[in-house]
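Justification of computing resources. Each target in the renewal requires a structure prediction run like the one illustrated here; the chain below, 125 residues long, is used simply to show the kind of job we budget for.
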Amino acid sequence: MNKIEAAVKMKCPRCHEGDIFETKNPYRLGKMTAMYKNCPKCHLKYEKEIGFFYGAMYVSYMFNIALFVIATVAYYLFFEDRVNWLWYILGYIFLTIALFPLLYRLSRSIWLHAFNKYEPNKVQH
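Resulting structure tokens:
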């Protein structure tokens, strides 16, 4: 498994085996943000320092900007003549809210992978 695949699957950046989040379903209310403190396999401490994951907000922001640009271009190319712009805005807001749990987790996973290298020899079975 390469680094990008491990980040998307939300696996530990060091061993690519342990999960980052306690549940696989990002839409399970109450457990959406629940992360392990350490990797269950190699015991890597996920939060390096207090506030470490604030940087994941920048990754999330980039995802949201990309989503907005794609939605806006699609609207002007395919729907401008048929759909009122108010429906476009409401649809975009709904899409952003619907994707929030997934993008939240993905942003944290990518941020964590950016600051840790793959070291499969550190796995403790």
